[in-house]
Design brief:
Layout: H1 10-29, H2 35-57, H3 61-85, H4 91-101, H5 110-117, H6 120-137, H7 140-146, H8 152-160, H9 163-176, H10 183-189, H11 192-208, H12 218-246, H13 251-262, H14 268-276, H15 280-309
Helix pairs in contact: 1-11, 2-9, 2-11, 2-14, 3-4, 3-6, 4-7, 4-12, 5-13, 6-13, 7-8, 11-15, 12-13, 12-15, 13-15, 14-15
């Protein structure tokens, strides 16, 4: 693995913040409504991005086990946060807190960092962990978010209509049957990951462009930051130490797990909140705060964690 260089984080950070600034300008100067863009991300761009990533990755039982483990951890943490906050916060806020608890900016921010820190095999391990968290976002996470406004039946109906689930199954079928996706189709799909990143971060800026000071909610933002910047790093560290005590754990997988625990809040918190109409402004503020803190926290956390785990 490569040594951790804090300056390597600045490129991804400034790129993401530039996208946020573009979104803010679009909302303030062009009066663009971000809600249709959120719908486009959820129902078209995300599924195609997910399908392409899975088919390129060549899923194996071992890789899919990582995906399943990440999905279960994210789901359990989200359910736990929902139970702890549902009596303290309003239903919509509690639902958004639960969704944000199970995910992080593992793709837009974490992937460029992973490519700096990890060799190719480590990046592949990281990506299949990310797939599990993404699958959580559009199943359990989406359901918990929808329950902030809708009944159980309505929430389940919304999940059934999400094409990302079917994109995941289609990718497994394609890989399992050794089918070959036409080269022209894969080349056409190559534009979607960058589009997903650009629009996902711009939505944060668009939402912030409509935020007023009265929408700043200290307790809500505090819980978001505590879960992402305290609970997740501790959970990742405990997972690596526990696995090291039980089984031989490769340094690449250990670093991939640690990186999952230190990325900032996910931009998809705002995307899903926008689609469901559940406090997107509050989510955008929390995402921005953790993203700005990332260049300081990630080198600090990873340096400490690698010493504790002996990497």
């Amino acid at each position: 693995m490569h040594a951790l260089d804090p300056s390597a984080l600045m490129g991804p950070l400034w790129t993401l913040l530039a996208y946020v600034a573009l979104g803010w300008l679009a909302a303030r100067r062009l009066a663009i409504d971000p809600r249709p863009i959120a719908t486009l991300l959820i129902y078209l761009i995300a599924p195609l991005t997910f399908f392409r990533g899975l088919t390129l990755g060549g899923p194996t039982p071992g890789y899919l086990l990582l995906t399943l483990a990440a999905f279960l951890v994210a789901s359990l943490l989200a359910v736990a946060v929902h139970r702890l906050t549902r009596h303290t916060f309003a239903p919509q806020e509690s639902a958004l807190l639960a969704f944000s608890a199970g995910t992080g900016n593992t793709g837009y921010f974490g992937l460029p960092v992973a490519m700096v820190l990890l060799p190719p095999e480590g990046v592949t391990l990281y990506l299949f962990c990310v797939l599990g968290i993404t699958l959580y976002e559009f199943t359990v996470g989406f359901y918990l978010s929808a329950r902030g406004r809708f009944s159980v039946a309505e929430s389940l109906a919304k999940i059934v209509r999400l094409p990302l689930i079917y994109a995941f199954l289609a990718a497994l079928v394609v890989s399992g049957l050794d089918l070959e996706v036409p080269t022209a189709a894969m080349e056409a799909l190559a534009v979607f990951p960058a589009t997903y990143t650009l629009l996902g971060m711009m939505i944060i800026g668009m939402t912030l462009g409509r935020v007023s000071l009265r929408e700043v909610d200290g307790p809500f933002i505090g819980v978001c930051v505590a879960v992402r910047c305290v609970a997740w790093p501790l959970l990742a560290l405990a997972a690596v130490l526990g696995l090291q005590a039980l089984v031989p754990l490769s340094p690449e997988l250990a670093m991939a797990i640690l990186l999952l625990g230190v990325v900032p809040m996910a931009a998809n918190v705002v995307v899903v909140a926008m689609e469901l109409g559940i406090a997107p402004a509050k989510g955008a503020l929390a995402v921005l705060i953790t993203t700005l803190a990332a260049p300081l926290l990630i080198p600090l956390y990873l340096t400490l964690m690698t010493r504790l785990t002996g990497l």
